[in-house]
């Protein structure tokens, strides 16, 4: 069978574009199939990227990429009614930045084109089949026959489902909802804040975030799909309540909602099958440990490796040996960091974290800053008991994050 390209990348987000750039640099003929009118049009992200993997892919990205603000303040907010607890850690570094995905993805798409990749927009993959030693992709623009595919088509991984190697489960997803709101900066230009918010999604398993951009705020939350189904609530109403509770005022410039993976290291789907490698959200590459949420750097790292493995497979003249991708990936920060966050990931599935502990934290601090019994252990135990939680159970819950 004759092929239309050496490699097809399904999905023009960060992971797919990283694979395209990496493979194109190795001399492969690469086509990126993106269903949106431009890269970034279908992406929803809280808006923070750790830049280490981007710098390996594009060494001068700090000078040229459309990054917003370096994150110099890490803030935790725990809300319980009219009370709240705020903890801020400040530091000076350029390890991570706030970003607007539409701008970043379009910039990286131009990098892919500059390296020789062909981008085909408004191209929807509607089916796939294995034949002739490769994969035939069925699209609204006709069929593409390639010996190798990188799947970067988002959390629901339609390509893997077309090929019959994956089934979806509702408990493997969260709903991410985000608004970008106009904002008058009250920080120096070289400072930015990433905020984790707990207690403003009552009755739902999830939490919120706020990121400061140059002249806007990215605000939003992620909650388990099953929680949305149980409570029968609208995400559009939740984000309005969330914005009001935060006291954020300004024009809503952008609203988006999307499914994101929630499987953790132990629940990741197959990362490869013959002639196929999977990266980013399609591979469940989301790290959430209660302190940070990371996905962009993992997607770029995995995509970069997939592109290099593609070149190796062409050299071997055997595109079926995609297990080499799994082997290469296992020794990288991608799998190491996902594995290290596995315990915390399971701890975040505990409903007490969202239903009980925010009020316990506020009650304990209320007591400690008031007249009366101020013995911390006794006060904590009493407040836990008031929420129906034993001290032993609370300690066990805490140990998931240690």
Automatic annotation (TrEMBL):
The lineage of its organism: Archaea, Thermoproteota, Thermoprotei, Sulfolobales, Sulfolobaceae. The keyword Flavoprotein applies. The keyword Oxidoreductase applies. It comes from the Archaea. This is FAD-dependent oxidoreductase. Transmembrane segments: none annotated. Keywords: FAD, Flavoprotein, Oxidoreductase. It comes from Sulfodiicoccus acidiphilus. Gene3D superfamilies: FAD/NAD(P)-binding domain. Its cofactor is FAD. InterPro entries: FAD/NAD-bd_sf, FixC-like. One of its GO terms (molecular function) is oxidoreductase activity.
């Amino acid at each position: 069978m004759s092929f239309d390209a050496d490699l097809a990348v399904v999905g023009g987000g960060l992971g797919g574009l990283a694979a395209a750039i990496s493979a194109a640099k190795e001399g492969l003929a690469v086509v990126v199939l993106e269903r949106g009118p431009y890269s970034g049009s279908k992406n929803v992200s809280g808006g923070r990227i750790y830049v280490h993997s981007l710098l390996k892919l594009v060494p001068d990205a700090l000078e040229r990429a459309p990054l917003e603000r370096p994150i110099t303040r890490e803030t935790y907010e725990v809300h319980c009614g009219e009370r709240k607890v705020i903890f801020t850690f400040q530091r000076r570094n350029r390890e991570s930045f706030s970003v607007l995905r539409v701008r970043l993805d379009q910039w990286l798409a131009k990098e892919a084109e500059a390296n020789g990749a062909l981008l085909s927009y408004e191209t929807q993959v509607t089916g796939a089949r294995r034949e002739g030693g490769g994969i035939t992709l069925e699209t609204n623009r006709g069929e593409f026959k390639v010996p190798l595919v990188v799947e970067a088509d988002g959390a629901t991984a339609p390509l893997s489902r077309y090929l019959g190697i994956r089934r979806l489960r509702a408990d493997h997803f969260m709903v991410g909802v985000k608004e970008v709101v106009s904002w008058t900066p009250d920080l120096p230009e070289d400072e930015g804040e990433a905020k984790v918010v707990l207690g403003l999604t009552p009755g739902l398993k999830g939490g919120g975030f706020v990121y400061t951009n140059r002249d806007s705020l990215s605000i939003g939350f992620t909650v388990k799909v099953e929680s949305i189904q149980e409570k029968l609530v609208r995400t559009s109403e939740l984000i309005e309540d969330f914005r009001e509770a935060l006291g954020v005022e300004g024009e809503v410039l952008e609203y988006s909602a999307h499914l994101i993976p929630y499987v953790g290291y132990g629940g990741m789907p197959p990362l490869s099958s013959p002639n196929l490698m999977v990266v980013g959200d399609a591979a469940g590459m989301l790290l959430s440990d209660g302190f940070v949420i990371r996905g962009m750097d993992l997607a770029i790292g995995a995509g970069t490796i997939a592109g290099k493995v593609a070149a190796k497979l062409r050299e071997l003249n055997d595109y079926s040996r995609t297990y080499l991708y799994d082997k290469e990936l296992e020794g990288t920060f991608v799998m190491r960091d996902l594995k290290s966050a596995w315990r915390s990931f399971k701890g975040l599935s505990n409903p007490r974290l969202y239903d009980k502990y925010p009020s316990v934290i506020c009650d304990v601090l209320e007591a400690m800053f008031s007249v009366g019994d101020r013995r911390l252990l006794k006060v904590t135990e009493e407040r836990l008991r008031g929420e129906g939680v034993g001290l032993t159970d609370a300690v066990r819950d805490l140990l998931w994050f240690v």
